[in-house]
UniProtKB/TrEMBL annotation:
InterPro entries in the cross-refs: MFS_dom (IPR020846), MFS_sugar_transport-like (IPR005828), MFS_trans_sf (IPR036259)
Species assigned in the record: Gossypium raimondii (Peruvian cotton)
TM segment ranges: 21-44, 64-87, 99-118
Main location: membrane
Keyword match Membrane: yes
Coiled-coil region: none
One Pfam family, short name: Sugar_tr
Molecular functions (GO terms): transmembrane transporter activity
The protein's name in its UniProt record: Major facilitator superfamily (MFS) profile domain-containing protein
Length: 141
């Protein structure tokens, strides 16, 4: 504990230099990426409803059923909490640089996989979409 306080006091006493802004930029990129992901899903659910649940006779053709819309939107909040706890702990154990590289790799794989969601029925496609969407945002720090 005393060592941590010494590091914090040294950072407070140091002149502001470029390396002070690097963690701010990295944290800001993660924050805005996650915020964009949470914002854009509301627009994407309307498109998914038009593609997988189109009913020409309905007054609102192409809306997702409530249980599917709730799952698509709700998975984001569950994964954010679980991911930040897990990868925060993992970052303390393995180091932030290594974990940051791992999260970037997972982000690329899961974003491609969520775009290529598969299934025989519309509900199956939504289930795989939610699965990959969970893992896409699980690692956001």
């Amino acid at each position: 504990m005393a060592n941590q306080l010494g590091v914090l006091n040294a950072l407070d006493a140091a002149k502001t230099q470029w390396y002070h802004f690097t963690p701010i930029v990295i944290a800001g990129m993660g924050f805005f990426t996650d915020a964009y992901d949470l914002f854009s899903i509301s627009l994407i659910t309307k498109l998914l409803g038009r593609i997988y649940h189109f009913d020409a006779l309905s007054k609102k053709p192409g809306t997702l059923p409530p249980h599917i819309a709730t799952a698509v939107n709700g998975v984001a909040f569950c994964r954010t909490l679980a991911g930040q706890l897990f990868f925060g702990w993992l970052g303390d154990k393995l180091g932030q640089k290594r974990v940051y590289g791992l999260t970037l790799m997972l982000m690329m794989i899961c974003s491609i996989a969520s775009g290529l969601s598969f299934g025989k029925s519309p509900d199956g496609v939504m289930a795989t979409f939610c699965f990959f969407r969970f893992w896409l945002g699980f690692h956001m720090l």
